[in-house]
Amino acid sequence: MFKRAAAALAAGAMAVVLSACSSGGAANDGAAGGGSDKITIGFSQVGAESGWRTANTKSVQDAAKKAGVTLKFSDAQQKQENQIKAIRSFIQQKVDIIAFSPVVESGWDTVLKEAKAAKIPVILTDRAVDSQDESLYVSFLGSDFVEEGKRAADWLVKEYQGKADPVNIVQLEGTTGSAPANDRKSGFADVIKGDPKFKVLASQTGDFTRAKGKEVMQAFLKSQPKIDVLYAHNDDMALGAIQAIEEAGKQPGKDIKIISIDGVKDAFTAMSQGKINVVVECNPLLGDQLMELAKKVKKGESVERRIKTEEGVFTQDQAAAALPSRQY
Ligand code: GZL
Questions:
Q1: What percent of the chain has pLDDT over 90?
Q2: Is residue 90 pLDDT above 60, yes or no?
Q3: Distance 177 CA to ligand 1 centre (A)
Q4: Which atom of ligand 1 is nearest to the CA of 179?
Q5: Do both 185 and 275 map to the same domain?
Q6: Is the same domain home to 137 and 149?
Q7: Ligand 1 neighbour 50 (Cβ under 6 A)
Q8: Which helix (H) or strand (E) holds 199?
Q9: How many CA atoms lie within 13 A of 255 on its CB side?
Q10: Which structural domain range is residue 236 located in?
Q11: Got the DSSP string for 53-110?
């Protein structure tokens, strides 16, 4: 899937290069009256809550520069009302395209209808909305979080294959109401429901941050007499939990096995030290694909409604070798 997208991307990029040359050369690029192929994107980012988010922001900003796209960027500090305000401001500024990662799934129809009324196309990146009105956005570029949750549980099932003893699990959930939290929870639950030895004793949001992940893990350690596994919806919460586990005199990765999602460098380092057992990758480097998508949308070309990013799973034995080439 990723190879196809990459090929399309390359072709798309080639088309952009050719049209740029032709708009400079004899043949024009088909824009009536030599219309500007400059693009202005209004981008509303969730916040700066995690290493993943920082890498995602850098990817979008670097890609915009490389593509010659004017980027109006706003950081919502993980508040939906700030994203709604930013989208309204982008509408006022008459940007060409609005792109955003919705901090939570619900509550977007009103503002997206305003963008539609203003004839400004919307691209979802990273996270999805639960709107039933498909006309409110042209494309959703990002990971399949249900699949990520399933991959996390697949590792657990394999790890405890053939063992009958109960496996006591605690879960650090992502931001309440967000697509990654909802879907990583449901994907994981779907796989383990087949085996009664797997018991999720406690599940609480750590809001995708290290500080909250540590705080909630401290509470789990106090309230749960025996924890075998921590399933963290992102690396930052897992890394915070590792601090809590060590401060409680236990060995992360051994006394309490840790499953995490994202694949930031710090998680690979922790994995190479034996403190995290498996990382399910979630790719934040969406910038180039977003810019290519935006150029096609601006030109009125048809685009795929759903573009999934290609991602892997990394276990402890692979961590040290993979670390040097990690890009985020
Ligand atoms: C997933 C992304 C999540 C990451 C977290 O695509 O939305 O938000 O897993 C980030 O690290 O905070």
A1: 88
A2: yes
A3: 13
A4: 7
A5: yes
A6: no
A7: yes
A8: strand 198-205
A9: 13
A10: 145-282
A11: HHHHHHHHHHHHHHHT-EEEEEE-TT-HHHHHHHHHHHHHTT-SEEEE--SSSSS-HH
| Ligand 1 centroid to residue 258 C-alpha, Å | 18
In a domain, 322, yes or no: no
Atom of ligand 1 minimally distant from the CA of 264:
11
pLDDT at 138 over 60: yes
The residue whose CA has the least distance to atom 6 of ligand 1 is 126
Average pLDDT, the chain: 91
The DSSP call for residue 192 is H
Which atom of ligand 1 is found nearest the CA of 127?
Answer: 7
Residues 323/265, Cβ–Cβ less than 8 Å: yes
- CATH number at 70 reads 3.40.50.2300
Q: 105 and 179 in one domain?
A: no
Largest CA distance in the chain: 76
**With 60 as the cut, is the pLDDT of residue 108 above it?**
yes
Decide if pLDDT at 28 tops 50: no
In this predicted structure, the answer to whether residue 146 has a pLDDT above a threshold of 80 is yes
Amino acid at 63: A
Report how many domains make up the chain.
2
